[in-house]
């Protein structure tokens, strides 16, 4: 009886081994491959060469010069030169969304626009959260300069030049 139990256990082990081999022979491995990619285009830049207008207090057009040069896709340099108190100049910079994602002005900084000194500079058109819609949406920023008309004496060498820097940081507008 003991031998027959051993034969039964041995037979069951053999059947189990045969079943394991058969399962392995008929098992299938499934592999799933995939790819994810971003198809959008982020493009916020200065549209064209900025434009400038000027007004001379003397009425002589050459007394004031104002130029704006597009230094690259995302920067421009504005130069204003005045001869006498009351001269003014205005330059307009247009930001363009040439991509296919909505953008918005996240933060901006305009340094050098204080009211002290004979040259007054103001920057308008900047507000955090300003939307810049996709595909040719535009946003206009205006830089105005003036040789203060109340100046009655010759400015010092340090007062004759004023440097202004405007930085605009755009981010994707997620509709929040």
Overall 3D shape: rod-shaped
Helical percentage: 10-25%
Binned strand content: 35-45%
Q: What number is the mean pLDDT?
A: 87
> Which ranges are low-confidence, i.e. pLDDT below 50, for 5 or more consecutive residues?
none
- Count of DSSP E strands? 10
Oligomer: single chain
- State Rg: 36 Å
Q: What is the string of SSEs from the N terminus onward?
A: HEEEEEEEEEE
Structural class: mainly beta
Described by strand count, sense and barrel closure, the largest sheet is: 5 strands, antiparallel
Kindly report how far apart the N and C termini lie.
82 Å
Our count of domains comes out at 1
Distinct helical segment count: 1
Which tags fit this structure?
single chain, rod-shaped, mainly beta, 176 residues
What would you say this structure looks like, in words?
With 176 residues, this protein is mainly beta. It has one domain. The protein contains one helix and ten strands, in the order αββββββββββ. Strands 1, 2, 5, 7 and 9 form a five-stranded antiparallel beta sheet that branches.
Summarize the structure.
The chain is mainly beta and 176 residues long. It has one helix at 2-26, and strands at residues 44-46, 51-55, 65-70, 76-81, 88-97, 103-111, 119-124, 131-132, 137-147, 165-172.
């Amino acid at each position: 009886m003991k031998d027959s139990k051993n034969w039964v256990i041995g037979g069951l082990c053999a059947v189990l081994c045969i079943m394991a081999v058969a399962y392995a022979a008929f098992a299938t491995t499934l592999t799933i491959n995939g790819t994810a990619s971003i198809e959008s285009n982020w493009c916020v830049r200065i549209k064209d060469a900025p434009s400038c207008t000027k007004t001379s207090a003397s009425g002589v057009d050459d007394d004031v010069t104002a130029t704006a040069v597009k230094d690259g896709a995302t920067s421009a340099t504005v130069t204003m030169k005045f001869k006498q108190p009351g001269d003014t100049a205005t330059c307009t910079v247009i930001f363009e969304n040439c991509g296919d994602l909505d953008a918005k002005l996240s933060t901006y900084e305009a340094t050098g626009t204080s009211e002290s000194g004979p040259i007054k500079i103001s920057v308008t058109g900047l507000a955090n959260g300003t939307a810049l819609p996709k595909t040719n949406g535009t946003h206009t920023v205006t830089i105005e300069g003036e040789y203060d008309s109340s100046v009655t004496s010759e400015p010092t060498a340090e007062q004759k030049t004023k440097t202004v820097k405007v930085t605009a940081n755009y981010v994707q507008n997620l509709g929040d």
